[in-house]
Each structure stands twice: as C-alpha cells, then as structure tokens.
C-alpha cells in the first residue's frame, strides 16, 4: 500500500501525521466530507493536539487551493471511528495503524542510535585534533566524506534534500540504517586518523579502493589493510 504517514522534515523529533486527503482517498469518500467531519468534531480532535492545515493547489500551476488538514496519530484514529465501517475503511484503518507504529519505531530507534553515537563523535573530534594533517576545515571534510560514502551526497546537499536548515546536525537527519553505518564509518576513520593517513588515503579506503601506504610503518600496514577489507 502507498505511504500514509509522513513527517514535516527528516528531523528525528518530528511528530508523524496523516492528512485529510489521504483519509478521503483511502476511505473512498470525498475530501470535502472529511473536512466537514474535522470541523464538526474539531473540539474532540483538539483534545489530542491543535488541528493544523496547509493550503495546496488542486492542480499544478495557477488554480484554486484546497485546505489539507494534518492529523496526528490520536486525531486520525479518532476521526476514522466516525466513518462508516466499510471494507475499504477497515483495510485503511489497519494499514494506518501499522504505518504509524512503524514510523514511531523508526524515530525511537534513530533517537537511541543518536545518543549512542555521541561518545564516538567526540572520539572522532579528538582524533582529528591530533591528526598531523589537521586544518580548520578538517572536521567538515571528514564528516562530509562519511556522509557522501553513505548517501552519495555531502552534508549540505542531504540537508537541502531532506528539508532541514543548515544549522542542524547532520546526524539528526539520518535514518536508522544510515545512522548505524555512520557510526561504523566514524570508528573506521578514527583508526585511520590514528595511523596518520592522509585525507586521500582515508577517502580511498572508504570508497573500497586498494592502495599502498608508503608513509606507514611496516607494523601498521596490516592494520590498515584489515580496515580496508572490512569496508
């Protein structure tokens, strides 16, 4: 089934919601009828939070706009109890419950991983400060490299794509799979910084390339190659 539950941005503290348009489409009724229900039972719905909406054009280009309500989990669950219990409505109710649960589980997992990653981020910061090749752009270069290894885009690009402001921490917008990979790569980079590799050597290893590390002591070569093999 298509996506029924959304968040405003990719930030991990966003509240999931569905829309009056989704409810109308999935229940097989007119959007106007859903908006009427929302207005009729607005006081009931607002016991679970303020009802919000956005004005969107019905068609592309110039044209009339329509009001699209955003409803959180409690509000949407309550609203659909006011609908006739037809077969499409029953199927929609079950899928909506599943998707709200899945979205909330993902957000909770992201928050947990974010907290677990904090000590690793501090260790990365410390390793960069001790790095022989450190400069004022080093932290940005390293974190952009990790971001691009995971997503194919740098931190600025992924923030723009996921509709968050530039001052937001990059680790606040990764999904749970990306966050787990990010911490794994941080640990890899910490090891490589400790071996005093250059930025280009670190980049090559994260990209899965094989290269000769002429600046490393002989006893360090095996460690570096083992890290490369793990990628």
TrEMBL record:
InterPro entries tied to this protein: Phage_regulatory_Rha (IPR014054)
Record-given protein name: Rha family transcriptional regulator
Species assigned in the record: Tetragenococcus muriaticus PMC-11-5
Pfam families per record: Phage_pRha
